[in-house]
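User: Hello, can you help with two protein structures?

Assistant: Certainly.
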Amino acid sequence: MGRSSCVPDLQQNVVLSHRDNSRTLARRTASFILAKIATMNFYRYMYYALAYTSIVMLIIAIVSPFWIVQHFEEDDFHMGLWSICFGTVICSYISVVTANLAAVQGLMLIALACCFLALICSQDLLTRCLKKKVPENLISSAAFYHAGVCILFSLIIMYLRLRAIMMEVEVLHLSPDWAFFMSMFTCSFCLVLGTLRLLWQKHLVNGKKKLSTQRTVVPATASVDVKQLYP
């Protein structure tokens, strides 16, 4: 009689315990999702701001004729990747392209293509077009790293060529201009964006593992068979 009277109480306690565990899981899940949303919004704002800034700066640096400057007594001489200017009026395209200049042009265009690819992957466009899961975070991170490396090699080639010309012709006093330094900032931005995208992928993977662990642990503690306690 005493054993049978304890069975409903135990069943009620199990039900209450299961409800408490479900509520705890719901609270943890809600707080986890809210924290993710807040982090995601801040991350996305910062990420897209840096990404668009990097692309705009890279385009300006590519088309600008202010990579190298030579200050004359009467007028200035400016040179870019595609054009050469005397002063602020007379500009013309570079007719004779050396191997070093062609390498810098190609690397900068590859860097620009990688930046656009990284921006496309960051908006889940590949997954929507291919209709299957694509590791776009890793692709975006790799694309930004490639862009940063291409810009870095371009700057190294341009600087070494500049030093070689100055050693050959001592009369010339060439120096890097503002487009050169803008490319340096763009290179650093691309490397930072690649690192941010990689950390975001790691953050998402750890969050999914933590959430799946919480979902598997709570039902296991709540499933208690009364007949096993009182055979």
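That covers the first. Now for the second protein you mentioned:
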Amino acid sequence: MLRRKSKKKESEKSISEGEEALLTLDKSQFSFYRCHNVPSVDRLEGRYKIKIGSWTDRYLILYCEYVLYYEVVKGSPVPHDGDLPVGAIDLDKVELKSINFCEEKVSLGGLIPKSSSYENCIELKMDTGKKVYDILIQFDSEENTRTWLSVLRARCKNIQTIKPKFDIVEVRATIDMLINKYPITNHIKSAPASGQEEAWLQNAIGYWKARNKYRKDLRRSKLFSTVYSTSVCRYIDWFVMSGGEAGAESLEKELMMAEDLVVNGWKKNASEGLNTYEEKIASINPEDADTCYQALLEVVQKVRCAEMYIKYYSEVYPSTDLTEVESIKSQWSYFIRLLQGYLDKIMAKRREESEGALRRLEAEKQSENLFWDQPDAEDDPFSDINIVKL
């Protein structure tokens, strides 16, 4: 009696022994949904033919340090979200010099050598330590072939150069620190409320310095799946991505908008009205305290804007020429001294008037005390009584 093969056994049979031998990683971490939807450095994917033992249709994804491949799904252009890879090429174990175009392959396995020609195909060798695998991948166009070849060579070189010096534990600790201290935000580009400018300034400078210091390490971490995990990949992308990269939200884009909307706004505010302010000062009554005080507040704000602009650019871009803004600050500072001088004179005059009024009041009080301290004899009811000494 013939037994019907189960679907599970048929599925297992469709996976070649070569593919099974290559899959040494934890498959559960590489569901198709995760690897297909989470961005990675120069991620490539598509349905191609791969030969490890025999030619097989597979869906390939270049993800971190692996070329993962999944079983194709009949009637669907891509695998199911929950599908796990049936095999993986570990690029850390691929011989860099072995990655080449493969136009012809000669087999010496039989009595008579056989030559096979291929179109849009690349070859590579992977040494697992137990066996060296010859792998062929055939693509659907010359353009895709060249793209994959170029990216695979670069990826292998980067991984094999960086990995020996890459401290995964330290980088993970750095990422945890950054997530807590500099979380994802879209508020840096928003102008700070009045009185909060200094706090905003320190926060923005902190983000810039952190990005400049740690961007290299976090960008490298995208090459390694053990670091570029589901829990932190969004933060890493946000932290390292360039401002205009695929139109995505990023820290760099947030800080660039902050410069345009807030920091450069401070310079604009500081510059406005400077050329005509001498005329305005000339029209101010130097004895009108309210007018002088309001003008002083306005000028102080101008100087403050210039100072915050200077502080930001001297911290973030130390080589920036700030001569123009320093000059603006200096000119406004002159008007501060002038207006402060007006107010000082007004206050001195008021103090003098106040002190004069106090002196007059004290004199009048003393005069009244003298009058009451010396009563007339006629008004003293005891003035005619002789005191008898006992």
